[in-house]
Protein backbone atom coordinates (compact mmCIF):
# COMPACT_ATOMS: atom_id res chain seq x y z
CA UNK A 1 0.00 0.00 0.00
CA UNK A 2 1.22 3.47 -0.78
CA UNK A 3 2.70 5.34 2.14
CA UNK A 4 0.37 8.27 1.48
CA UNK A 5 -2.59 6.30 2.85
CA UNK A 6 -0.82 5.86 6.17
CA UNK A 7 0.21 9.51 6.15
CA UNK A 8 -3.39 10.63 5.68
CA UNK A 9 -4.66 8.32 8.40
CA UNK A 10 -1.97 9.64 10.71
CA UNK A 11 -3.52 13.09 10.62
CA UNK A 12 -7.00 11.59 11.12
CA UNK A 13 -8.70 12.95 8.05
CA UNK A 14 -12.29 12.02 7.40
CA UNK A 15 -11.48 10.19 4.20
CA UNK A 16 -9.57 7.52 6.09
CA UNK A 17 -12.61 6.63 8.17
CA UNK A 18 -15.53 7.44 5.96
CA UNK A 19 -14.32 7.16 2.38
CA UNK A 20 -15.77 4.32 0.33
CA UNK A 21 -13.59 1.42 -0.73
CA UNK A 22 -11.40 2.68 -3.53
CA UNK A 23 -10.70 -0.61 -5.25
CA UNK A 24 -10.67 -0.07 -9.04
CA UNK A 25 -14.20 0.63 -10.18
CA UNK A 26 -16.03 -1.80 -12.42
CA UNK A 27 -18.58 -0.32 -14.77
CA UNK A 28 -21.88 -2.19 -14.91
CA UNK A 29 -22.75 -3.31 -18.40
CA UNK A 30 -26.22 -2.21 -19.50
CA UNK A 31 -28.83 -4.71 -20.72
CA UNK A 32 -28.31 -5.87 -24.29
CA UNK A 33 -30.29 -3.88 -26.84
CA UNK A 34 -30.48 -4.00 -30.58
CA UNK A 35 -29.55 -0.41 -31.39
CA UNK A 36 -26.14 0.23 -32.90
CA UNK A 37 -25.36 2.96 -30.39
CA UNK A 38 -26.22 0.71 -27.46
CA UNK A 39 -24.01 -2.02 -28.89
CA UNK A 40 -21.12 0.44 -29.24
CA UNK A 41 -21.65 1.56 -25.66
CA UNK A 42 -21.72 -2.01 -24.37
CA UNK A 43 -18.52 -2.87 -26.22
CA UNK A 44 -16.80 0.23 -24.86
CA UNK A 45 -17.88 -0.59 -21.30
CA UNK A 46 -16.65 -4.14 -21.74
CA UNK A 47 -13.25 -2.81 -22.78
CA UNK A 48 -13.12 -0.57 -19.71
CA UNK A 49 -14.06 -3.47 -17.43
CA UNK A 50 -11.29 -5.62 -18.89
CA UNK A 51 -8.72 -2.86 -18.46
CA UNK A 52 -9.72 -2.28 -14.84
CA UNK A 53 -9.61 -6.00 -14.04
CA UNK A 54 -6.10 -6.16 -15.51
CA UNK A 55 -4.93 -3.28 -13.33
CA UNK A 56 -4.67 -0.77 -16.17
CA UNK A 57 -6.61 2.05 -14.52
CA UNK A 58 -4.88 4.86 -16.40
CA UNK A 59 -5.67 3.29 -19.78
CA UNK A 60 -9.25 2.67 -18.63
CA UNK A 61 -9.56 6.36 -17.75
CA UNK A 62 -8.33 7.27 -21.23
CA UNK A 63 -10.94 4.95 -22.78
CA UNK A 64 -13.71 6.53 -20.70
CA UNK A 65 -12.52 9.97 -21.81
CA UNK A 66 -12.79 8.84 -25.43
CA UNK A 67 -16.26 7.47 -24.75
CA UNK A 68 -17.39 10.81 -23.32
CA UNK A 69 -16.70 12.33 -26.73
CA UNK A 70 -19.26 10.05 -28.40
CA UNK A 71 -22.21 12.21 -29.51
CA UNK A 72 -24.42 9.12 -29.51
CA UNK A 73 -24.44 8.80 -25.71
CA UNK A 74 -27.70 9.52 -23.93
CA UNK A 75 -27.58 11.94 -20.98
CA UNK A 76 -27.91 9.03 -18.56
CA UNK A 77 -25.06 7.15 -20.22
CA UNK A 78 -22.90 10.27 -20.20
CA UNK A 79 -23.50 10.77 -16.47
CA UNK A 80 -22.72 7.12 -15.76
CA UNK A 81 -19.46 7.24 -17.71
CA UNK A 82 -18.51 10.52 -16.05
CA UNK A 83 -19.13 9.01 -12.62
CA UNK A 84 -17.14 5.88 -13.39
CA UNK A 85 -14.24 8.01 -14.58
CA UNK A 86 -14.49 9.98 -11.33
CA UNK A 87 -14.42 6.73 -9.33
CA UNK A 88 -11.29 5.59 -11.14
CA UNK A 89 -9.62 8.97 -10.79
CA UNK A 90 -10.44 9.00 -7.09
CA UNK A 91 -9.16 5.47 -6.65
CA UNK A 92 -6.33 3.82 -8.55
CA UNK A 93 -6.09 6.61 -11.11
CA UNK A 94 -4.57 8.99 -8.55
CA UNK A 95 -6.20 12.15 -9.89
CA UNK A 96 -8.16 13.69 -7.04
CA UNK A 97 -8.58 17.05 -8.73
CA UNK A 98 -9.83 15.37 -11.90
CA UNK A 99 -12.30 13.31 -9.89
CA UNK A 100 -13.64 16.43 -8.19
CA UNK A 101 -14.09 18.15 -11.56
CA UNK A 102 -16.06 15.16 -12.91
CA UNK A 103 -18.26 14.99 -9.80
CA UNK A 104 -18.98 18.71 -9.92
CA UNK A 105 -20.02 18.37 -13.56
CA UNK A 106 -22.53 15.69 -12.56
CA UNK A 107 -23.80 17.91 -9.74
CA UNK A 108 -24.39 20.90 -12.01
CA UNK A 109 -25.34 19.25 -15.29
CA UNK A 110 -26.84 15.86 -14.44
CA UNK A 111 -28.50 16.37 -11.07
CA UNK A 112 -31.43 14.13 -12.02
CA UNK A 113 -29.32 11.20 -13.21
CA UNK A 114 -29.28 7.83 -11.48
CA UNK A 115 -25.71 8.41 -10.27
CA UNK A 116 -26.27 11.91 -8.87
CA UNK A 117 -26.67 10.85 -5.23
CA UNK A 118 -23.58 8.63 -5.25
CA UNK A 119 -21.64 11.37 -7.01
CA UNK A 120 -22.62 13.91 -4.36
CA UNK A 121 -21.46 11.58 -1.59
CA UNK A 122 -18.12 10.91 -3.25
CA UNK A 123 -17.67 14.63 -3.95
CA UNK A 124 -17.98 15.42 -0.26
CA UNK A 125 -15.36 12.81 0.60
CA UNK A 126 -13.01 13.88 -2.18
CA UNK A 127 -13.20 17.56 -1.25
CA UNK A 128 -12.38 16.75 2.39
CA UNK A 129 -9.29 14.83 1.31
CA UNK A 130 -8.31 17.62 -1.10
CA UNK A 131 -8.47 20.18 1.70
CA UNK A 132 -6.26 18.06 3.93
CA UNK A 133 -3.68 17.34 1.24
CA UNK A 134 -3.36 20.95 0.14
CA UNK A 135 -2.99 22.04 3.77
CA UNK A 136 -0.19 19.50 4.16
CA UNK A 137 1.58 20.86 1.08
CA UNK A 138 1.26 24.42 2.34
CA UNK A 139 2.66 23.51 5.75
CA UNK A 140 6.08 22.67 4.36
CA UNK A 141 6.36 19.89 6.94
CA UNK A 142 6.38 16.96 4.52
CA UNK A 143 9.39 15.09 3.21
CA UNK A 144 10.29 15.21 -0.50
CA UNK A 145 8.82 11.73 -1.00
CA UNK A 146 5.63 12.65 0.85
CA UNK A 147 5.38 15.78 -1.28
CA UNK A 148 5.77 13.65 -4.41
CA UNK A 149 3.02 11.29 -3.26
CA UNK A 150 0.65 14.15 -2.40
CA UNK A 151 1.22 15.86 -5.75
CA UNK A 152 0.65 12.57 -7.55
CA UNK A 153 -2.50 11.85 -5.55
CA UNK A 154 -3.89 15.27 -6.40
CA UNK A 155 -3.33 14.58 -10.09
CA UNK A 156 -0.47 17.04 -10.50
CA UNK A 157 1.55 14.38 -12.24
CA UNK A 158 3.94 16.69 -14.09
CA UNK A 159 4.90 18.46 -10.86
CA UNK A 160 5.40 15.09 -9.21
CA UNK A 161 7.57 13.88 -12.09
CA UNK A 162 9.68 17.04 -11.97
CA UNK A 163 10.20 16.60 -8.23
CA UNK A 164 11.03 12.92 -8.68
CA UNK A 165 13.72 13.73 -11.23
CA UNK A 166 15.18 16.74 -9.43
CA UNK A 167 15.22 15.00 -6.05
CA UNK A 168 16.45 11.62 -7.32
CA UNK A 169 13.42 10.00 -5.69
CA UNK A 170 12.62 6.30 -6.10
CA UNK A 171 8.85 5.85 -5.68
CA UNK A 172 7.12 2.55 -5.02
CA UNK A 173 6.18 0.27 -7.90
CA UNK A 174 2.56 1.46 -8.02
CA UNK A 175 3.66 4.98 -8.87
CA UNK A 176 6.12 3.77 -11.49
CA UNK A 177 3.39 1.71 -13.17
CA UNK A 178 1.05 4.71 -13.21
CA UNK A 179 3.76 6.96 -14.64
CA UNK A 180 4.51 4.36 -17.30
CA UNK A 181 0.83 4.08 -18.25
CA UNK A 182 0.38 7.86 -18.32
CA UNK A 183 3.50 8.35 -20.43
CA UNK A 184 6.08 9.92 -18.15
CA UNK A 185 8.27 6.81 -18.06
CA UNK A 186 9.28 4.78 -21.11
CA UNK A 187 11.51 1.86 -21.97
CA UNK A 188 13.97 2.07 -24.84
CA UNK A 189 17.67 2.09 -25.66
CA UNK A 190 17.51 5.70 -26.84
CA UNK A 191 16.71 7.05 -23.36
CA UNK A 192 19.06 8.49 -20.76
CA UNK A 193 18.88 9.42 -17.09
CA UNK A 194 18.02 7.35 -14.01
CA UNK A 195 16.69 3.82 -14.49
CA UNK A 196 13.74 2.48 -12.48
CA UNK A 197 12.78 -1.18 -12.24
CA UNK A 198 9.05 -1.82 -12.26
CA UNK A 199 6.64 -4.72 -12.63
CA UNK A 200 3.36 -4.33 -14.50
CA UNK A 201 0.09 -5.82 -13.18
CA UNK A 202 0.47 -8.80 -15.53
CA UNK A 203 3.93 -9.56 -14.12
CA UNK A 204 5.96 -8.01 -16.94
CA UNK A 205 9.21 -6.56 -15.60
CA UNK A 206 10.59 -3.40 -17.19
CA UNK A 207 13.48 -1.01 -16.73
CA UNK A 208 12.12 2.45 -17.46
CA UNK A 209 13.44 5.99 -17.72
CA UNK A 210 11.96 9.43 -18.17
CA UNK A 211 10.58 9.68 -21.70
CA UNK A 212 11.82 13.25 -22.12
CA UNK A 213 15.46 12.37 -21.45
CA UNK A 214 16.90 11.15 -24.72
CA UNK A 215 20.56 10.40 -25.31
Task: Give a quick summary of the entry.
Keywords: Signal. This protein has helices at about 5-10, 15-20, 35-55, 55-70, 75-90, 95-110, 115-140, 145-155, 155-165, 175-180; strands spanning about 185, 195-200, 205-210. With about 220 residues, the protein is mainly alpha-helical.
Topology readout:
Layout: H1 3-10, H2 14-18, H3 36-53, H4 57-68, H5 75-90, H6 96-109, H7 116-139, H8 144-154, H9 157-166, H10 173-182, E1 185-186, E2 196-199, E3 205-210
Antiparallel strand pairs: 1-3, 2-3
Helix pairs in contact: 3-4, 4-5, 5-6, 5-7, 6-7, 7-8, 8-9
Account of the 3D structure:
The protein is mainly alpha-helical and 215 residues long. It has helices at residues 3-10, 14-18, 36-53, 57-68, 75-90, 96-109, 116-139, 144-154, 157-166, 173-182; strands spanning 185-186, 196-199, 205-210.
Amino acid sequence: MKRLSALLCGVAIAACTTAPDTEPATVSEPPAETSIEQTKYSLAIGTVNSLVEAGNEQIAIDRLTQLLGDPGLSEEQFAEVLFKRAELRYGGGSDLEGAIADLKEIKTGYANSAVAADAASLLETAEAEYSTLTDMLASGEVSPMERFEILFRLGRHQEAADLMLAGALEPENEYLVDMYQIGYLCDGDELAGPVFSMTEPDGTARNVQFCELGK
